[in-house]
Design a protein that fits this description.
- The chain has 7 helices and 14 strands.
- With 259 residues, it is of the alpha+beta class.
- It has a single domain, classed as Endonuclease/exonuclease/phosphatase (Deoxyribonuclease I, Chain A, 4-Layer Sandwich), CATH 3.60.10.
- The strands form 3 sheets. The chain has a 6-stranded mixed beta sheet with strand order 3-4-2-1-14-13. The protein has a 6-stranded mixed beta sheet with strand order 5-6-7-8-12-9.
- β6 and β7 form a beta hairpin.
- α5 runs parallel beside α6.
- It starts with a strand and ends in a 7-residue tail after the last strand.
Length: 259
Amino acid sequence: MKLITYNVNGIRAAETKGLSAWLIAQNPDVIGLQEIKAFENQFDWTPFLTAGYRVYAESAMKPGYSGVAILSRREPNAVVRGCGQDWIDHEGRILRLDYDDFSFMTVYMPSGSSGDERQAYKMRFLDFFGPYAESLSAVLPGLVIAGDYNICHQAVDIHDPVGNAQSSGFLPEERAWFGSFLERGFCDTFRTLHPETVGYSWWSYRQGARAKNKGWRIDYQCISLSLKDSLQEAVMHPDAVHSDHCPVSLVLFEGKGSS
């Protein structure tokens, strides 16, 4: 079972760079997208529908802002839009599909880089999301939380940990939150399989950051520990250049949950 997460930073712009062709060629079972920046009817989903995917989108109320989507080859048992908190759901940040053997959530966590107000919103979101995810994991057979977390957890996850020590996305309180999130019963799939590998999933558009590989690892597929024994592969794809992020893929073997 192959799962891909991708912050496309505007699905309409990304499609002009070959987004759907690249994703379909990867042949994943489920695709989670973040920052689609469109209402569902503002994008032509035909390539995905023709390839056999069902499309589920959760857009922000504000036009051209935020928004998430999931493309699935399997029909889910349930589609859960948002998390029941209007101050989050109005920004189109969370969407979940439930299947018999696992659930897949796409999440676009807030950025605090624009100033103190949004940083405070981000921390409020994180304070809510940790217990929320833990409560879901307790009742679902297995939970994949895939998306843009907007946090680098460790120094190895950012190109300049010293220079960015006070930057939103690498603040001590954000890094501590990520550690506490994992302690709630989740596994960072890429870091589990690649404990010391340097790899990034986002690069600033400024100063040729991507060409110089001055990046941040802020896109994750975290799984509940019940799925850890199923973990086979976790890969970042910096060769995919439809966005300032790159896709992150995950391969799980079904039916091998841990005891």
